[in-house]
Amino acid sequence: MITRGDIAEIISEYDLEKLAIGTIGSHSALNIFKGAKEEGFKTVCVCKESDAIVYKKFPLADELLIVEDFSELMGDRIQERLRELNTILVPHGSFTAYLDMRQLAEGLRVPIFGNRHLLRWEASREGQEEWLRRAGLKIPRAFKGPEEIDRLAIAKLPGARGGRGYFLANSPESFRSKFSEMVARGLLREDDAERIHIQEYILGVNVYPHYFSSIIRGDVEFFGVDKRYESAVDAMGRIPADDQLWMRISPTYTIVGNIPLTLRESILPELIRMGDDVQRAAEELAPPGIIGPFCLETIITDDLEIFTFEISARIVAGTNVEIGTSPYAYLRYGGGMYTGRRIAVEIKDALRHGRVLEILT
Ligand code: AMP
Ligand code: AMP
Description:
The protein is α+β, with helices and mostly antiparallel strands and 361 residues long. 35% of the residues lie in helices and 22% in strands.
């Protein structure tokens, strides 16, 4: 386990005048780097050769550390270099998707902006549910196994896989046949069966509010909202129902991009309270709770009930629609504020007040 003491020791070797902000090259890296640069930090990108083109075309990374596999982040070579560069790492969805969260919590000897102990809660479905329930949020009913399915249900895999391999089923039989179909199509593996999580399907639109929990200012800020653009589900409405039946299409949810949203103002009070409640619950689970950005993944029904089906305790790629600003960031900050930059501002605030250890784990 990496303790506060370990982080304090690493930071004591750092030149705080020359801090760099680093992350893995993917997901929301451009957002994080742009924000860091705008606030005057150096940036470090741990990146695959094949993706380096992004960080050359958008020249936002001062250092590229090329790896063959992101798991090299857990090795000594990359970690030593990151410490030499006085790096604070900002975790995002590619960390949860490609790295082992337990290993990260216990073995990554580079300071993280964020609460690494909460990333583990995020990686486990049971952990997430417990957290959301403690916060008093409405969550979809979970089925213990396929034999319990008695209504439309959605089957999902743990971890941020971007909806890949999700499918719908309305009975134990349809679960089994759809599962085999997903395996045959290469979207799932046989051994995924034990890890699949089955939830009641909520009919409504998906809404992903983004928040920023500031430890230094003691507040949860409402940053913006997106919805997702998913293949193939968002393509199905373009095909007449007759043809859908004939083709026997079932929806899949592979994320392709994000679309900005503004909400009915009357929905805001509940969403804002939900953000505060989630942070209060997180303070109990792993003090000081969420450090920095987080997102609730919700579905809003036609009678305006808000169901939360997931939480991400770190920056989400949906905030990329707000690089520059969002309507809600504008309302608070005027132009030019977005999640990547807000992270850099928080680090600067912490440095100015001599409180940097409070925002690192
Ligand atoms: P990637 O590095 O693009 O594979 O992203 C890592 C994980 O983050 C993916 O498995 C997705 O679950 C998630 N992700 C990536 N991009 C987005 C996005 N634009 N919106 C939501 N989730 C995303
Ligand atoms: P995720 O990767 O968890 O963001 O979810 C991918 C897709 O599945 C999104 O379009 C969600 O709206 C949808 N989804 C997830 N859980 C549910 C649920 N319980 N009911 C309805 N749709 C869901």
